[in-house]
Design a protein that fits this description.
about 140 residues; alpha+beta; Thiol Ester Dehydrase, Chain A; 5-stranded antiparallel sheet; 5 strands
């Protein structure tokens, strides 16, 4: 069954994430990027940022919580057994720092019904505690029919 295009524009409740220096360090080590801006507190304090900052792709940590509600939305009725990750892209605006609170919103921006598959795109917009955009994530999923 095709994903109904009436769901374009659908949103879910915003979620907030408190960024800690420990999580940033863990993430940096996991992706094997030991840039001192991410892992060395003394170095980071002397940098132009004044504290530990997050690698740009840390946005997947605070954004991931907004993808799950899409998958399990009873109205959408996505067939998870047939769903595959199509692609994702990011636009970065402002550096995420240890101590920031990031609030992310989600919205279905595109649904396309094709003969053998449906394509659904979800946009995430993340803002810091000052209301400034830090990242936009665009996640595209394919549901095979």
């Amino acid at each position: 069954m095709a994903i109904d295009t009436k769901f374009i524009g659908k949103t879910w409740p915003e979620q907030s994430y408190d960024v800690s220096k420990e999580k940033i360090k863990e993430y940096a080590k996991a992706i094997k990027n030991l840039d001192p801006h991410y892992v060395d507190e003394e170095f980071a304090k002397k940098s132009k940022y004044g504290c530990i900052i997050a690698p740009p792709t840390f946005c997947v940590v605070f954004g991931a919580n907004l993808i799950e509600p899409v998958f399990f939305d009873n109205e959408l009725k996505l067939n998870l057994a047939m769903l595959v990750h199509g692609e994702q892209s990011f636009e970065f605006y402002e550096v995420v720092k240890a101590g920031d609170t990031i609030t992310t919103s989600s919205r279905i921006s595109h649904i396309e019904n094709k003969e053998k598959l449906d394509v659904i795109t979800v946009d995430l917009l993340s803002k810091n505690q000052h209301g400034r955009d830090v990242c936009k994530g665009i996640y595209t999923f394919v549901v095979r029919k």
